[in-house]
Design brief:
Length: 304
């Protein structure tokens, strides 16, 4: 009888314990992730890299194109305002090892250049304590075209350059994101077009994204090179790369239509070799499109 009498109280105690467990689990599930998402919609802006990395087990296929001069001596109607000419073409793959770590490979038409890249998200902007995002970027490039003279590339290392950059970004509102990208290019003497130019170059990039419609944004970036470590009295006239474009989100695609004065797509090429100016018709049309694929098992894809 005593056991029967105690049974209701045991049942009540068990239910209370179960409610406590449910309450704890509910509190855990309600813990918010204060990290700011989608500072930029793409890992690339016009010319510069953004702070964004690939999500874990996601693979992005990139296609980029730069046409010829719209105006000036080499543009106009006889080249269909540059559309008959391709100054650079880029094909590449970026893969997210983790949400914070991306590796990639690619190939550019200019100099038949192959590149390998690494991006690591060091800091992530959140609504509680961290006002900015910081991503580290490194890229090595290898020129594979034949030498134009017997002594152009006297050793294999003359074909290789390295670029390192810190990408400091902040999302100020759902429609406005800005970034500052200090970087340093290391290249051998054999890759200089002007023998008086510096082997290694500092670069300071700035960029922004300004949302105008639900899936359409204006993007722009500018890279300071002249006036930093580059001499002022060079025989070749170089210009700071500047690009502006429209970014369109279409499901699994991010499509950017751009105008820029740089003939080339990757940083190892456009930072040292931009010889066109917006003021003399050197602006050119280009685009960059990516297609994202999830390589995670189906059971894990819902979290991406």
């Amino acid at each position: 009888m005593k056991r029967i009498f105690l049974l209701p109280f045991l049942m009540i105690g068990f239910c209370m314990q179960a409610q406590d467990v449910d309450s704890i689990m509910a509190n855990l599930s309600e813990q918010k992730d204060y990290r700011v998402q989608a500072t930029f919609k793409s890992p690339r802006l016009v010319l510069l890299q953004t702070n964004e990395t690939q999500k874990s087990k996601n693979l992005a296929f990139w296609v980029g194109h730069r046409f010829g001069d719209i105006g000036g001596e080499f543009g106009g109607s006889h080249t269909l305002y540059g559309l008959d000419v391709a100054s650079d073409l880029y094909l590449g793959f970026d893969y997210g090892i983790t949400d914070a770590l991306t590796v990639g490979i690619g190939r550019s038409k200019f100099n038949e250049t192959y590149n390998g890249l690494v991006k690591y998200r060091l800091l992530w902007q959140d609504d509680e304590a961290m006002p900015i995002s910081v991503t580290l970027f490194g890229q090595s490039s290898w020129i594979t075209r034949e030498a134009r003279s017997n002594n152009e590339f006297s050793k294999e290392g003359d074909r290789i350059s390295h670029f390192f950059q810190a990408i400091i970004a902040r999302k100020f509102s759902p429609g406005v994101s800005l970034m500052v990208n200090p970087g340093y290019l290391i290249r051998p003497e054999a890759q200089r077009q002007d023998f008086q130019d510096s082997d290694n170059l500092f670069a300071l990039g700035v960029g922004g994204r300004f949302k105008i419609l639900k899936r359409i944004s204006i993007i722009a970036d500018y890279t300071f090179i002249n006036g930093l470590s580059r001499p002022d009295d060079l025989q070749t006239e170089y210009y700071n790369p500047f690009g502006v474009g429209v970014e369109i989100e279409t499901g699994g695609h991010v499509f950017a239509l751009n105008f820029q004065n740089s003939q080339y797509i990757t940083a190892n090429n456009f930072i040292p070799n931009t010889t066109k100016s917006w003021s003399d018709g050197g602006v050119r049309f280009g685009f960059m499109i990516s297609r994202n694929f999830s390589l995670a098992p189906k059971s894990e894809r819902n979290q991406y």
